[in-house]
Amino acid sequence: MVEAGLGYARYRSRRPASTLRQLLDGQGRARLSDTERRLALRADAGMRRLGIACLARSAVVAGMLRRRGVAATVSLSVAAGAPRSAHAEVAVGGQPLRAHPMGNVLFT
């Protein structure tokens, strides 16, 4: 959780352009180990309990996984009937760690 906290502090101090590059650039392994998956889900859950928005959580978790050599990116989805209702989730190998909300249109 300490790594997630430090990652969130770095996320908050970056310029938007560097954050966007981080979200879109995914180089490395296209598979997660069980340990990496648990780490990512625990970090995400901890930040969610603190009220951190999904885009910030996803950027932090993707950064944590990239430092471990995983090709993590952030995928975005929007509710079909409510265009202002968007969600961000970490994806590895084209698959999100957690499912996007049902009925959302996924942007890749």
Textual characterization of the structure:
The chain is α+β, with helices and mostly antiparallel strands. The protein has one domain (2-107). Helix content is 47%, strand content 23%. The protein contains four helices and four strands, in the order ααααββββ. The protein has helices spanning 2-13, 16-24, 34-49, 54-67; strands at 72-79, 82-92, 95-96, 104-107. The chain has a four-stranded antiparallel beta sheet with strand order 3-2-1-4. Strand 2 and strand 3 (95-96) form a beta hairpin. Helix 3 (34-49) runs antiparallel to helix 4. The longest helix is centred in the middle third of the chain and has 16 residues, at 34-49. The protein is globular. The termini are far apart. 28% of the residues are buried. The mean pLDDT is 81.
Sum this structure up briefly.
By secondary structure, the protein is α+β, with helices and mostly antiparallel strands. It has four helices and four strands, in the order ααααββββ. A four-stranded antiparallel β-sheet has the order 3-2-1-4.
